[in-house]
Amino acid sequence: MEPLQRSESREFVEALARGIEVIRAFDTMHMAMSVSEVASRTGLARPTARRLLITLEHLGYVRLVDGVYTLTARTLELGTAYISSLGVWDLARPHMQALVEQTRESSSMSQLDGSDVVYVARVAVPKIIALSVTIGTRFPAVATSMGRVLLASLDDDALSVVLDTPSASGIVPRVQPDRVELDAVLAAVREQGWAMSDEQLSVGIRSVAVPVAGPGGVVTAAMNVTTHAAETSVERLLGEHLPLLLEAASAIGDEWSHLARLPSVLMGSSGSTGVGRDQR
Predict the structure, then answer these.
(1) Which of 130, 150, 145 is nearest to 229 (CA)?
(2) Could you read off the pLDDT of 147-173 as tens digits, one per residue?
(3) Cβ–Cβ contacts within 10 Å for residue 225, how many?
(4) 200-209 burial, b for 16+ CB within 10 Å, e for fewer?
(5) Backbone angles phi, psi at 103, to 5 degrees
(6) Which fold, 14-71?
(7) Residues 81, 84, 85, CA angle at the centre, nearest 5°?
(8) Rounded to two decimals, what is the model's pTM?
């Protein structure tokens, strides 16, 4: 587990950082852990880990059964609150569903977090691929089509900061380009307006992605179509699926921009996307 960055600031709350580390210690390989296992995963002293787990249990974020702790569904609130505040999913869902119906391939939307892409929306078809993908899944951006689209939207300084950030995904891609190679790839992405990853993340995964521009034309997310390389050729991916993907992403961006211009008073609490409030 990648440790959280600490700060020397007097305003930094160490106890909060430790609590977050405890939550992050749980993953698909460590779904149920004892106090000692949590302490080992986080590097915390056992008494400290125990107090934090008891606190999280009282708050409803972990559950203790037969001496081991597991996360509860309440932890989803921490991530879905961020997604809901953007309103991306509500806007994107019908367009992504229509795209999947047309292509009969999965489509996802992601955003950049450090040097990783994080999946924030997905409409999947029942196909077996090498890597499991759900909301919140992280992959190294340099090896994914969506990651390359998002990296291409950054200026040189921001790109350097992102690339210097260690990946927290736990996935080692098949292809890891150096900076010179990556700069050439990103230059092409900027010129053509889309990116492809052809089995560069993992064997059998071929995808194409395009940017999704939010208010002001700022690239806020990326959206893709993912296929199995043995079933879908590059020619079909680019010739048939890419035009449909571009159309869907453009429609999402247009709706997002139009919604951002609406006065927040017109948006009820049940239907609010958060975009109008934050971007007006």
Answers:
(1) 130
(2) 999 999 999 999 999 999 999 888 889
(3) 27
(4) bbbeebbbbb
(5) -90, -25
(6) Arc Repressor Mutant, subunit A (1.10.10)
(7) 85
(8) 0.69
